[in-house]
Amino acid sequence: MEKEVKRFPVSHVIGFLASLALTFIAAVIALKTSLSFKAIMWIIGSLAVIQAGLQLFMFMHMTEGEDGKTNIINIAYGVFVAVVVVVGSVWVLTSGHAAH
Amino acid sequence: MSANVNTSLPLEYQTHQSRMNILGFWIFLGAEIVLFATLFAVYAVLYQNYAGGPTHQDIIMIKEVMIQTLLLLTSSFTCGLAIYEMRRNNVKGLISWLVITLLLGAGFLFMEINEFIHYIHEGATMQTSAFLSSFFVLLGTHGAHVTLGIGWAIIVIIQLIKRGLTPVTARKIFIIGLYWHFLDVVWIFIFTFVYLKGMVG
């Protein structure tokens, strides 16, 4: 576990600047370009995942402490269930027989 | 509770009880991810069911939403700085950054409530369409979390001022910090998959 004795919170500032950049890039791509809906959603969706990762690792110190591995497994499982619930619901309810 | 004190660790990790509490809170956050996933799933299924009511492009005020996003993102950063100052044993810095965090959070909440009032005046209420029902439930659940977080943080700050920085108060501040960062994580996905998606599609 790191002991923070540094004079300047480098990782926080980097995380903040990167988050700002990701937010603005996503906004510009969504609002100012004429890419297809699918392409835009893939790009800004990926940017959102990267930014969420920044928060978890650089701000929340998810991996520190004796339970760091447990935290990662727990959050990874939470994300897995989230993806199954969202993608599964959209798949079942907007395609095939359910759409008719 | 005072057993197993390890002074080589940051204050909030020094007792076994604190380490268990922090682990338990991470498990709670795992459940929160799933809670929000169910609301995102409902929204993703129903987001084009306008029922003759307003669409995304009719109502979304993207400029205000950008400001809300920046307020919450900055508050997540200042909350990180608060924990950073706590680990340097700088109580004044810790309290100052926590208060700034809460002011930014309150600014976010104020703008979000105004946004909702604006929508309702435009005739876009929870009862208007499936799109707006799922929209208000998802956004409202997040806003309720922010409101709860502000109240919780105020109570913890009062305790910090009364009792000073101890392994127990440090742990409580660390945990409210995790909660606050988590709310920003949820907002990133609301910003992307509700607002930006609505402006594109």
From TrEMBL, chain A:
<dbReference type="GO" id="GO:0009319">
    <property type="term" value="C:cytochrome o ubiquinol oxidase complex"/>
</dbReference>
<keyword id="KW-1133">Transmembrane helix</keyword>
<dbReference type="GO" id="GO:0016682">
    <property type="term" value="F:oxidoreductase activity, acting on diphenols and related substances as donors, oxygen as acceptor"/>
</dbReference>
<protein>
    <recommendedName>
        <fullName>Quinol oxidase subunit 4</fullName>
        <ecNumber>1.10.3.-</ecNumber>
    </recommendedName>
</protein>
<feature type="transmembrane region" description="Helical">
    <location>
        <begin position="12"/>
        <end position="33"/>
    </location>
</feature>
<dbReference type="Pfam" id="PF03626">
    <property type="entry name" value="COX4_pro"/>
</dbReference>
<dbReference type="GO" id="GO:0009486">
    <property type="term" value="F:cytochrome bo3 ubiquinol oxidase activity"/>
</dbReference>
<feature type="transmembrane region" description="Helical">
    <location>
        <begin position="39"/>
        <end position="60"/>
    </location>
</feature>
<dbReference type="InterPro" id="IPR005171">
    <property type="entry name" value="Cyt_c_oxidase_su4_prok"/>
</dbReference>
<feature type="transmembrane region" description="Helical">
    <location>
        <begin position="72"/>
        <end position="93"/>
    </location>
</feature>
<dbReference type="GO" id="GO:0015078">
    <property type="term" value="F:proton transmembrane transporter activity"/>
</dbReference>
<dbReference type="InterPro" id="IPR014250">
    <property type="entry name" value="QoxD"/>
</dbReference>
<keyword id="KW-0560">Oxidoreductase</keyword>
<dbReference type="GO" id="GO:0019646">
    <property type="term" value="P:aerobic electron transport chain"/>
</dbReference>
<dbReference type="GO" id="GO:0015990">
    <property type="term" value="P:electron transport coupled proton transport"/>
</dbReference>
<comment type="similarity">
    <text>Belongs to the cytochrome c oxidase bacterial subunit 4 family.</text>
</comment>
<keyword id="KW-0472">Membrane</keyword>
<keyword id="KW-1003">Cell membrane</keyword>
<comment type="function">
    <text>Catalyzes quinol oxidation with the concomitant reduction of oxygen to water.</text>
</comment>
<keyword id="KW-0812">Transmembrane</keyword>
<dbReference type="InterPro" id="IPR050968">
    <property type="entry name" value="Cytochrome_c_oxidase_bac_sub4"/>
</dbReference>
<dbReference type="GO" id="GO:0005886">
    <property type="term" value="C:plasma membrane"/>
</dbReference>
Automatic annotation (TrEMBL), chain B:
<feature type="transmembrane region" description="Helical">
    <location>
        <begin position="23"/>
        <end position="45"/>
    </location>
</feature>
<feature type="transmembrane region" description="Helical">
    <location>
        <begin position="173"/>
        <end position="196"/>
    </location>
</feature>
<dbReference type="InterPro" id="IPR014246">
    <property type="entry name" value="QoxC"/>
</dbReference>
<keyword id="KW-1003">Cell membrane</keyword>
<keyword id="KW-1133">Transmembrane helix</keyword>
<keyword id="KW-0812">Transmembrane</keyword>
<feature type="domain" description="Heme-copper oxidase subunit III family profile">
    <location>
        <begin position="23"/>
        <end position="199"/>
    </location>
</feature>
<keyword id="KW-0472">Membrane</keyword>
<dbReference type="InterPro" id="IPR035973">
    <property type="entry name" value="Cyt_c_oxidase_su3-like_sf"/>
</dbReference>
<feature type="transmembrane region" description="Helical">
    <location>
        <begin position="131"/>
        <end position="161"/>
    </location>
</feature>
<dbReference type="InterPro" id="IPR000298">
    <property type="entry name" value="Cyt_c_oxidase-like_su3"/>
</dbReference>
<dbReference type="Pfam" id="PF00510">
    <property type="entry name" value="COX3"/>
</dbReference>
<dbReference type="InterPro" id="IPR024791">
    <property type="entry name" value="Cyt_c/ubiquinol_Oxase_su3"/>
</dbReference>
<dbReference type="GO" id="GO:0019646">
    <property type="term" value="P:aerobic electron transport chain"/>
</dbReference>
<feature type="transmembrane region" description="Helical">
    <location>
        <begin position="65"/>
        <end position="84"/>
    </location>
</feature>
<dbReference type="GO" id="GO:0005886">
    <property type="term" value="C:plasma membrane"/>
</dbReference>
<feature type="transmembrane region" description="Helical">
    <location>
        <begin position="91"/>
        <end position="111"/>
    </location>
</feature>
<dbReference type="InterPro" id="IPR013833">
    <property type="entry name" value="Cyt_c_oxidase_su3_a-hlx"/>
</dbReference>
<comment type="similarity">
    <text>Belongs to the cytochrome c oxidase subunit 3 family.</text>
</comment>
<dbReference type="GO" id="GO:0042773">
    <property type="term" value="P:ATP synthesis coupled electron transport"/>
</dbReference>
<dbReference type="GO" id="GO:0016491">
    <property type="term" value="F:oxidoreductase activity"/>
</dbReference>
<comment type="function">
    <text>Catalyzes quinol oxidation with the concomitant reduction of oxygen to water.</text>
</comment>
